[in-house]
Design goal:
Order of helices and strands: HHEHHEEHH
Helix content: 55-70%
Structural class: mainly alpha
Radius of gyration: 20 Å
Distance between the termini: 34 Å
């Protein structure tokens, strides 16, 4: 296996891991590729060629990843080409958004429990979600900051 084949195999592993959480495979491949490519800034054409994606599907996935905070882009003086790269602290930003989502859902489950009352059958179903999200919030509160070296 060549170095390039090994890199692309790793990129595919990243894509399949992220696909479990609903990230489109092309977006996962883009992320994986931008984590290992050299140079770290790549045009859509370079990314497309590297991961074997059509330019049409790549464009929508680049837009998605940019809106999620994973990518930044820039142009170079005198060129019309856009170059993409991983955003600084991209993973930290995304994880923090997920943590904020856990906290938000805890608020929703608390409101639901107040709404239906503690003795209602519906409360048991809400309580299951509340307990799970409460546990995640505790784990995240005790976890080291993703940006710190541990």
């Amino acid at each position: 296996m060549t170095d390039q084949e090994a890199l692309l195999e790793w990129v595919e592993r990243v894509a399949m891991y992220l696909a479990r959480d609903g990230v489109p495979p092309i977006a996962g491949r883009v992320l994986g590729w931008l984590m290992v490519c050299d140079p770290p800034e790549q045009s859509a054409g370079q990314i497309s060629e590297a991961i074997g994606a059509s330019r049409a599907s790549l464009t929508s996935n680049l837009r998605l990843l940019s809106s999620m905070g994973f990518l930044t882009w820039r142009t170079r003086p005198g060129e019309r080409t856009v170059y993409y790269r991983m955003a600084e602290d991209a993973w930290t930003v995304v994880v923090r958004k997920q943590i904020a989502g856990v906290t938000s859902f805890l608020d929703i489950t608390r409101d639901g429990l107040d709404l239906v009352g503690p003795d209602d059958d519906r409360a048991a179903r809400i309580h299951q979600a509340h307990t799970a999200f409460e546990w995640m919030a505790r784990v995240f509160d005790n976890a080291p900051d993703p940006g710190e070296n541990v």
